[in-house]
């Protein structure tokens, strides 16, 4: 038994850490917030050089052929500096989605684009009704001959301002579900490690969801920035208006999008959770440091138990979250039978622990913690913004419960 | 990352399982099958330890030359896991086997090893650990019980309290003050005391769990000899700490009990209904159960991460304090919930308990686990100071 990251995994962490520090660490996010995305672009390029975007791409397509467990240290480090952008969606969702369900041509084109950094993806899932359930999707895809017509308005698209392309689930007509799908079922869309993870609560219609991918500069695509208290996320509203696509833009089987999503979204939530523990660790390291140096009543405030015990409580939660998150990523990578429960319980636990840590960090810094200058608020805002990213804590808990058979 | 067992570890596990199948007391159903009162209860537990010993399963972590199995760390963990799984009877000489024997093997004299070690393992002699006093609990170095040298004897006077198993113990590992002139951590000495002598009086204390496992001990001119001293005179603090370091696998038993209790709790909530709906389907209950799932898995996995570190470095670190905190606090919370779910029936106890008394018993016992072995507050200080490097608490 060995429950730790390997030497190689830790080495990847170190090079990512160094790369991020060379670019200024949290300053990447700060300058992004100030409307200067160049630093982020440069950082992304460096991460690509390090091979971060190739880690989990199959060797047959020029990748390293590892799995998401190998990405855990990467996401811990990007989380630690609140890296903006699309690395997470690209590597932890687009890559598994395309690798598992894409056609041979798509794998060739899109995966190599991801590997060399030319292509980055954002998930255009949520619509104005705010629902996460794919069953509630109203955006549509209709076939007319060889042409697919896409009409949808997607909102709160994380990294929408930065991605070169969007992954868009829409409600598809059943025109071609009788078999004239051109590439869908020729692909090896085997969801072999599906462990019946149907979310317990979705109502809506589960039939006929299809995943499309659309270039950002495609005719009919409009991207508008959205204001957010977390300005590091590059949130956007993306409108697809009479967008005409060819068959190459359909990922997986026409109408089969729900199952694909339930599979790959677990990779994504495992990655989000890894970012959370990286960020949480940073928050706790900094509050610990502050408690050692800030003097009141002639004592470092860390001597007061009301302060030190609160830090310890959060630290214990971090340890717990870290264990759950490492395990969840291992479970996804190894297709373990408890993976759905492992992922969603890690996601809900880490989410709440991160919020508490980020909030206590502000409290224990006192007045200075309430300022824009300090980084404290950036972590709280990220914690709150990720809280409801593609699911709420309640959703994750229900998914855990149903995976456990309750 | 790898959660598999080696073939040697698997063999160890199977050998133990086979043995348990053959040797668990007939009709054993967990601790509620224990005889309710003494002396039957103690006799039952002594017999159980003897059986473990005869089967070679009493001191798995002990070196082979002292009658143990020389088990690896992970095998010892597997041992605890199996014992919890079958709800095996507790080991009555747990303090002797877990801490005192290994301490004597490590730093005892040859004579002490010859005289005591074997009988600890066989359960012929039961031991207790006399540290805490009325005025010295968390602040252990404040102990007042003192030993004064007279000729070749040491004369001991004072009082210990909360001493588990003292009422049945043959010997006590006693921490006493032998010099009051210096700083309070200096001038202590560790003695191996005969409990069957006129100067030692033991009074059982009635615990909130309705058991009588811990005691007061009064020393009135009790006697110890030169050969009963462990380590050097005045080095008692160091010896006391050495003894505590022998908690090699830390909270293994607690962490596995948590998993078992969690599973039982889920099973339990499937059998209870409220307004015709099974509790496990009640959204409020379900949320709580999911939370316990995450936290109990989290405690177990965190324990495994720390264990991995221990296996790599060769010695347990202060992380054990985190494990203790997580397990003991979570256990109290979760068992309390299991009681609470019983609604109007929840206060019923013993024979009148709603299902059986083990939820009530487990919950009441859990309140001691956040106190014994260093309270939650003290453990938090340890983590704050030794893991995070925060300033030391006020001390004098
Ligand atoms: C079931 C059980 C079995 C036991 N078995 C044994 C045994 O076999 N041998 C033995 O020697 N002892 C034994 N003990 C005693 C145990 O070690 C002590 O109870 C424990 O160390 C606490 O000491 P105390 O009871 O004097 O409480 P105190 O130290 O008086 O603590 C009272 C409260 O004050 C808090 N407190 C104390 N100091 C601080 C501080 N610096 N900062 C913040 N809070 C503080 C504590 O956390 C606690 O909440 C046992 C106890 C129990 C419950």
CATH superfamily of the largest domain in chain B: Butyryl-CoA Dehydrogenase, subunit A, domain 3
Number of helices of chain A: 11
Query: Please, what is the oligomeric state?
Result: heterodimer
Content of β-strand of chain A: 5-15%
Characterize the overall form of chain B.
Answer: globular
Protein structure class of chain B: alpha+beta
Low-confidence stretches of chain B: none
CATH architecture of the largest domain in chain A: Up-down Bundle
Question: Can you characterise this structure?
Answer:
The complex is a heterodimer of chains A (406) and B (396). Chain A contains eleven helices and ten strands. With 406 residues, chain A is α+β, with helices and mostly antiparallel strands. Chain A has three domains: 7-119, Orthogonal Bundle (Butyryl-Coa Dehydrogenase, subunit A, domain 1), CATH 1.10.540; 122-255, Beta Barrel (Butyryl-CoA Dehydrogenase, subunit A, domain 2); 260-403, Up-down Bundle (Butyryl-CoA Dehydrogenase, subunit A, domain 3), CATH 1.20.140.10. The radius of gyration of chain A is 21 Å and the shape is globular. Chain B is 45% helix and 15% strand. Chain B has a four-stranded mixed sheet with strand order 1-4-5-8. In chain B, strands 2-3-7-6 form a four-stranded antiparallel sheet, with no helix packed on it. A two-stranded antiparallel sheet of chain B has the order 9-10. In chain B, a hairpin with a 2-residue loop joins strand 2 and strand 3. The mean pLDDT of chain B is 94. Classes of the chains: A alpha+beta (406), B alpha+beta (396). Chain A binds chain B through residues 1-6, 69, 288, 291-292, 299-300, 302-303, 305, 308-309, 311-313, 315-316, 319-324, 326-327, 330, 341-342, 345-346, 348-349, 394, 397-398, 400-401, 404, 406, and chain B through 1-5, 74, 266, 280-281, 286-287, 289-291, 293-295, 297-302, 304-305, 307-309, 311-312, 322, 325-326, 377, 380-381, 383-384, 387-394. Bound molecules: flavin-adenine dinucleotide. Flavin-adenine dinucleotide (FAD) binds next to strand 1, strand 3 and helix 11 of chain B. Residues 128-132, 137-138, 162-164, 214, 368, 371-372, 374-375, 377-378, 393 of chain B line the site of flavin-adenine dinucleotide. Chain A: It holds the Pfam family Acyl-CoA_dh_N. Chain A: Its cofactor is FAD.
